[in-house]
From TrEMBL, chain A:
Membrane spanning residue stretches: 6-29, 41-59, 89-106
Protein name: AzlD domain-containing protein
Keywords: Membrane, Transmembrane, Transmembrane helix
One Pfam family hit: AzlD
InterPro entries: Brnchd-chn_aa_trnsp_AzlD (IPR008407)
From TrEMBL, chain B:
UniProt keyword Oxidoreductase present: no
Main location as per UniProt: membrane
UniProt family annotation: Belongs to the AzlC family.
Protein name listed in UniProt: AzlC family ABC transporter permease
Any Pfam family: AzlC
Species the sequence originates in: Pseudodesulfovibrio methanolicus
Topology term for the membrane: Multi-pass membrane protein
Compartment annotation: Cell membrane
Keywords: Cell membrane, Membrane, Transmembrane, Transmembrane helix, Transport
Residues spanning the membrane: 16-34, 67-91, 103-121, 133-153, 159-179, 207-224
Keyword Flavoprotein: no
Lineage start: Bacteria, Pseudomonadati, Thermodesulfobacteriota, Desulfovibrionia, Desulfovibrionales
Length: 107, 231
């Protein structure tokens, strides 16, 4: 049970701070010219941030012990192959979830 | 460049496969909020104000342990520092939008909307849509489905069996988006370095492992590209 005043204060402060982080560059972009090196680095943001979220989520979190612990990594591998082959988001998600459920059922 | 309505709808349409992952994500956040003793409106208010699942879950967890307000808010903000990177990366594509519109786009910026839009803008046909409105369509669709998930979660989320592991749809969504975006060797090296560092730095507090991985990846990609250009 959480005190509701405390809860709303967290919602307000965390919400406001998160908004300011999100809005930061979008706000100043037409007034500031970024250096060439920064512009070149921007291209690598998606290819870096997403794997940094994916790898720990797949290999370290939510894993069970024993052979069942292999379910998430194997399901993720299947999803990577599906993504390379089809470049289709839906097929990737469904093949990963199906593999996960199948492995959980048989392991 | 096509019209704004067409662009908005393209963004919304392209996000449909991702929405499958958003509903369970919202559902989990809503269910955890309700589990912490919040009313439906409390859980929704939390979701709408913050609109970033990972930080919401961390904040809730800390609040359960009666952490101080400063610790809860700072932890949530550190987890959300990645939005600085998204903001910097997407900003050049949104600058034709007037300021109030840009504030709205900033408010609904999410991992998923960012990933989807930047993938489209980097494609050869990326310039065929009005970019701010394409992003608006994608981000709105993500935001609405996340909210729907949160409503469900706050009301009935506790009856979904944990064995389904619906939360796994979230990393799968990111795999679906990032794999096609890795088109050349510098991008591949960036992804590899980022994943490796994030793996080994996972024990760091405040999700700093994510930031360490991301920054390493960005620098690796940049340096690899410079090296290739010199050869």
């Amino acid at each position: 049970m959480t005190d509701s005043e405390y809860y709303w204060l967290v919602a307000l402060l965390l919400g406001l701070g998160t908004f300011l982080i999100r809005f930061s560059f979008i706000l100043v972009v037409d007034r500031v010219t970024f250096p060439e090196a920064v512009v070149r680095m921007l291209r690598f943001i998606p290819a870096s941030v997403l794997p940094a979220i994916i790898v720990p989520a797949v290999l370290l979190h939510g894993t069970d012990g024993g052979p069942v612990g292999l379910a998430r990594p194997v399901a993720a591998l299947v999803a990577v192959l599906a993504a390379r082959k089809t470049r289709n988001i839906l097929v990737t998600i469904l093949s990963g979830m199906a593999t996960l459920w199948l492995l959980r059922a048989i392991l | 460049m096509n019209g704004i309505k067409y662009s908005f709808l393209s963004g919304a349409r392209d996000s449909i496969p991702i929405l499958l992952g958003m509903v369970p994500f919202g559902l989990i956040c809503g269910a955890v909020s309700a589990g912490a003793g919040m009313s439906l409106w409390g859980a929704l208010g939390f979701t709408w104000a913050i609109n970033a699942g990972a930080s919401q879950l961390a904040a809730l967890q800390l609040m359960e342990h009666h952490a101080s307000l400063a610790v809860v808010v700072l932890t949530g903000l550190i987890i959300n520092l990645r939005f600085f990177m998204y903001s910097a990366s997407i900003a050049p594509h949104l600058k034709t939008m007037p300021l109030p519109g840009r504030a709205l786009l900033g408010f609904i910026l999410s991992d998923q909307a960012y990933a989807l839009a930047i993938a489209r803008f980097h494609r050869e046909d990326g310039g065929e849509v009005n970019k701010p409105f394409y992003f608006f369509g994608a981000a709105m669709a993500v935001w609405v489905s996340y909210s729907i998930g949160a409503v469900f979660g706050a009301s009935v989320g506790t009856i979904i069996p944990p064995a389904w592991d619906l939360g796994f749809a979230v990393p799968l969504t990111f795999i679906a988006v990032v794999v096609p975006a890795i088109k050349d060797r510098p991008a591949g090296l960036a992804a590899l370095a980022a994943g490796l560092v994030a793996y080994f730095a996972d024990g760091l507090p405040y999700n700093l492992g994510l930031m360490a991985g991301a920054v390493t990846g960005i620098l690796t990609g940049y340096l690899a590209e410079r090296r290739l250009a010199r050869d």
